[in-house]
Design a protein that fits this description.
Layout lengths: L3 H10 L1 H9 L28 H5 L5 H13 L5 H14 L12 H8 L1
Helix pairs in contact: 1-2, 4-5
């Protein structure tokens, strides 16, 4: 909240919520930030072509992820603007900001669940 007047109004209108926010007991940490749409659970895996985020999620290190972005940009499979945004997110938020690591067999296990 930006001003004391807004804080006072908020406390008056929502006393229980204000108390919970001040106590910070119910915090949930958010580790994942996607700038592209999340993958759909209904996406058919047959003929599915992984995108840059899929490749980044297989990386263990920042260096590996940056190499993927560079490679796709050089092949014109990724625009300059998209590459800049991805590099910024990687450097600021890290590799896991794109989601948990995709281990070997990821797609096979997803296909079996269908």
């Amino acid at each position: 909240m930006s001003s004391p007047m807004l804080e006072d109004d908020f406390r008056r209108k929502f006393p229980h919520l204000a108390k919970e926010l001040e106590e910070e007991k119910m915090k949930i940490r958010i580790d994942e930030v996607r700038t592209q749409p999340a993958e759909s659970t209904e996406k058919a895996l047959s003929g599915y072509m992984p995108d840059v985020v899929d490749f980044i999620r297989r990386c263990d290190t920042l260096v590996e992820a940056l190499e993927i972005v560079d490679y796709l940009e050089k092949r014109n499979e990724l625009s300059f603007d998209a590459a800049v945004k991805l590099r910024a997110q990687l450097k600021i938020r890290g590799v896991r900001s794109f989601g948990p690591k995709k281990e070997a067999g990821y797609y096979e296990s997803r296909a079996r669940k269908r």
